[in-house]
């Protein structure tokens, strides 16, 4: 199963007694054969099983809420996690698709696909460095800030709920932008984001703590 490092972080944060959130990549998907239509591939059989196993590993939480990108494989991942949570006898609530978690930042899908194929993994550096045309893709810092605002607003709804967890299922480059902007980690240094990996957020009265593995940063 993927996602073991994120699960370890979530379990550790659960001990604080405060609500916890994470933005995580969907489970294993089919290959993207058309870079101009990255939303088409769905989860593989392995991905479905891994999502359910991930949910079944969330026994430290009594209430899990799930939000996801409008892309179908993210909904499939959320539904699989929910099945796993319910196997434990805990509450899993699916709260639907949210644009902040999706790929609506792509303004010119054809050119986006061309540039992604041209640059490969370096595409993310160009994006995070503000070097891609705004008529092709929105700035990475804007995308990351919109995701953080969504997470913060949702966590505030359960601020007084013990053992609450919000999971926001999104995409690799979205989460790498969040990881870089709010934890200070570049993918060149810590690697591409795996399936079911992500950034966790611990609720504090003074703000949020953004966490990726051994690194954390306080967000006022």
Description:
A hairpin with a 2-residue loop joins strand 6 and strand 7. Strands 3-2-4-1-5-6-7 form a seven-stranded mixed beta sheet, sandwiched between helices. It has helices at residues 4-14, 45-55, 72-87, 109-119, 122-128, 140-157, 172-183, 187-190, and strands spanning 20-25, 63-68, 91-97, 164-170, 198-204, 207-212, 215-219. 41% of the residues lie in helices and 20% in strands. Helix 2 (45-55) packs across helix 3 (72-87) and helix 6 packs across helix 7 (172-183). It is built from eight helices and seven strands, in the order H-E-H-E-H-E-H-H-H-E-H-H-E-E-E. By secondary structure, the chain is an alpha/beta fold.
What's the shape?
globular
Work out the radius of gyration: 16 Å
Please summarize the sheet with the most strands: 7 strands, mixed
Number of strands: 7
> How many helices does DSSP assign?
8
Poorly predicted segments: none
Overall mean pLDDT stands at: 95
Report, as a whole number of angstroms, the end-to-end distance: 34 Å
In order across it, which strands form the biggest sheet? 3-2-4-1-5-6-7
Order of helices and strands: HEHEHEHHHEHHEEE
Strand content: 15-25%
| Oligomerization category of the chains in this entry | single chain
- Helix proportion range: 40-55%
Which class best fits the helix and strand makeup?
A: alpha/beta
Which features does this protein show?
seven-stranded mixed β-sheet, 20% strand, single chain, 220 residues
